[in-house]
Design brief:
Two copies of one chain form a homodimer.
Chain A lengths: L4 E8 L5 H11 L12 H7 L2 E9 L2 E8 L8 H9 L8 E7 L2 H7 L6 H7 L7 E6 L6 H13 L4 E4 L11 H11 L6 E3 L6 H13 L4 E4 L1 H4 L1 H10 L4 E4 L11 H11 L4 E5 L9 H12 L9 E5 L7 H8 L4 E3 L2 H4 L5 H17 L1
Parallel strand pairs in A: 5-6, 5-12, 6-7, 8-9, 9-10, 10-11
Antiparallel strand pairs in A: 1-3, 1-4, 2-3
Chain lengths: 361, 361
């Protein structure tokens, strides 16, 4: 049998109940039936989840390590999520805290097709931090978004992503938006990153259109499109780099360093957006550090994914963020630049200058 | 402009902060930028989310109703989830509690293609409750699962679903499982409900194979496959009935009556599985009642979805469950029947008899 998968759950429970609780989760995430009803020897020996360790982390807080057969996952990223957390996600007091995979399973999923080095190469950047901003608000017509993109490019930004709320709406359909923005950026260094939406077929058509317009980086939401569909696109589109957005990630239930830093990377994200500490979201500095570390660490020989801290960032935080993350980062500032309105290009330029200054410092 | 979408969030917050918190969510779920940075009149008037009401529900607990432009959702079920809860799902203290849609948006998504009446017709049932069991444990070969199916059918069960953990694993590939089980059930009244897995293309191939084997009901996991891909299958497969499984539903963050009773129904589930109270999961009787009511209620002219309470149910609970849910229900008992092992057909027969007795009582 192939090596087993290790899932670590963080559970709120009293000490008296934790052993029974751990055994119940091991059954729930494998055979989903009472052990007494499992007659088959192979299933009892290999498929039933095993409680490997139970470790107290604090008062009424335990980490339980459960090993699962890698054969239950096969090569399906959706099934990976199903086996790791499917029914157990319905319990409010359990967090999926971490996962350890075999090299074989990691290679089967494959990780990023490009990673930080290629994201740098595409904008002619040296070993510095990259810069990114976002096209919003939704509701603007394509020409309005294209005007913003032109200003960002004038300011020298590296990547210009769609707000993750931009889909295929009547006021700014994907095709018209792509034409307008890719057209506005023709000849510029800045790269447009359109947001994919809809079902797998629609996304394929969007990638084909992007490619036709000379665009080779796209934004995806793995928790909305489904892990299996994301990975399918990664495999089908070796020329395209993917930036993963955490929308619908429900941070409270899957630990963010695992979901964003490891799992999004595992199934092919070249860069991962996440809410930086001290912005609009409650992630702690420790959580953010752990996300970045997980995205960049040596891990089963997979390419790293570039961390993209975001969510209410401002230019005056650039030195502190570069100090915190180092140069392996893409800094994303959206709303705070857009507040400059008609001086957007200058505000963008100040952002870019600040990043370059400190990256070379 | 079309009527607006109403999202209701349940928020833990002190009274002093709730107004600001509500405004922040209204921005986050629409334009995702400071209001001061929104220059466009149309966007300010129509696209920016509006705080409609703030109602105290208890100490430090508030329901905030925010209206969103339906144009931001267009016709995309994935985008519906993105606009309702995308980034806000990353806040631990906010629950997406309920949603109100316009008739137009409900019709655009379409709801179930069949619903309870057709599920009854397919097994020749009158207005009684339906019965269901589950094929498990995973790890059994196709012949082992087929033997279980044969016993369930001998016992007179209506629907036999795959455990939601059954995917396309080496020990029981989808195609071989389908052949074995559909073959075992040939001539029986009982209907096999195979579990779909993988990306959209794989699921399409699985549906085509099911159809070829005379199977016209399938199990899906909307939270894993992605809402848009589920709805695409519903539209492409008008002959197929879909039973939705709540795996990865993360009950703590989207209220179960909304997610399972309304949203799964909205995008096409003919029946919805959920954890009944007093079983392996912590749902209260009130929550279960609300799920069933939401699945069955008159709602924008959509067909109802049949409630399927499950998760550790036993035959001795049948009278109580029928009393609680009425006849518009499919009772699902898995592990408790499988514990009977070689007497599975008799145990199934006792379950079926009990349901028929009380359904006609």
């Amino acid at each position: 049998m192939p090596p087993r998968l290790q899932a670590i759950y963080r559970i709120r429970s009293d000490a008296r109940s934790i052993e029974a609780r751990a055994r119940a989760i091991a059954l729930e995430q494998s055979v989903e039936m009472p052990l007494a009803a499992v007659a088959d020897d192979f299933v009892r020996a290999e498929i039933v989840g095993r409680v490997e360790t139970v470790a107290e982390q604090g008062p009424d807080l335990f980490d339980v390590r459960i090993s699962l057969s890698a054969a239950t996952v096969a090569d399906d990223p959706g099934q990976l999520l199903n086996m790791l957390f499917g029914n157990t996600s319905l319990h409010e007091d359990v967090l999926l805290y971490d996962v350890e995979l075999s090299d074989g399973l990691a290679k089967a999923f494959g990780g990023p097709g490009h990673g930080p080095a290629e994201l740098r190469r595409r904008v002619g950047a040296s070993m510095r931090a990259l810069t990114c901003s976002a096209l919003k608000p939704q509701g603007l017509p394509p020409a309005g978004l294209a005007a913003l993109a032109r200003s960002f490019a004038q300011g020298g930004i590296d990547y210009i992503k769609d707000d993750h709320g931009l889909a295929d709406q009547a006021y700014s359909p994907f095709a018209a938006r792509l034409d307008a923005i890719a057209g506005a950026l023709r000849g510029a260094t800045a790269r447009y990153v359109p947001s994919l939406s809809g079902d797998l077929d629609r996304m394929r058509a969007q990638i084909a259109a992007a490619r036709g317009a000379g665009v080779n980086t796209v934004l995806v939401a793995p928790m909305i499109m489904g892990f299996a569909n994301f990975r399918r696109l990664v495999w089908e589109s070796p020329d395209i780099a993917f930036i993963a957005h955490p929308t619908m990630g429900g941070a409270a239930r899957i630990a963010p360093p695992l979901l964003i830093g490891k799992l999004f990377r595992l199934i092919g994200a070249d860069a991962v957006v996440f809410p930086n500490h001290g912005g609009r979201f409650g992630y702690s500095p420790d959580t953010c550090h752990a996300i970045a570390r997980a995205a960049l660490a040596d891990w089963h020989g997979l390419r790293p994914a570039l961390p993209v801290p975001a969510g209410g960032m401002t230019v005056d935080r650039v030195p502190e963020m570069l100090d915190f993350y180092g140069a392996d980062v893409m800094l994303l500032i959206g709303g705070a630049l857009l507040e400059a309105r008609e001086r957007l290009a200058e505000a963008t330029g100040a952002f870019v200058t600040e990043v370059r200054k400190f990256s070379h410092g």
